[in-house]
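Handover notes (outgoing to incoming on-call)

Open items:
1. Lipoprotein signal peptidase: sequence verified, structure written out, both below. Nothing else pending on this one.
2. Nothing else urgent.
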Amino acid sequence: MKKIAIVTIIILLIDQASKFYIKTHFQLGESIPVLGLDWFRLTFVENPGMAYGLQFGGLLGKYALVILRIILIGAMLYTFNKWIKEGRTSNYLLLPMAMIFAGAIGNLVDGMFYGMIFDSGTVYDESIGRWMEYGGVSKIVPFGEGYSHFMKGCVVDMLHFPLVDWQVPENSPISGWKGNQFL
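Lipoprotein signal peptidase structure tokens:
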């Protein structure tokens, strides 16, 4: 369990430090190539939903997603304990899972607290039933004085690999997909 904890803490620190840097130095949507490569970019995106921006149910969906993340993180802890008790201590299994675990915790932190500690971001506008960008480059503010409230923050995404250009039909039933490049 010690290996899992060390890897999780290291990855979580790197994750949060990079997200803080992107959020406090980039405008939403700003993109720069990494090492001059066209196929690897840092692009600041805020994701109010799940993977690839999928979302459901407005704010109720957001709350459900936070609860689901907490349940899944608990399930991962249970699984780690089970594996260790069964003697499955291979680094080939535990280290990648610890990285995934750290990412899950990082995304939970973003969604729960970023709205409370930054002065700008993406917020849910109930009058139109959509997530909207608010402000520009963020500044860190005293806890609770941010652009939104508890569990209303968005996950900061930044690694962009524009390898395939594609479009989702306008009438797609999946909310949050805009038809862009595959990330």
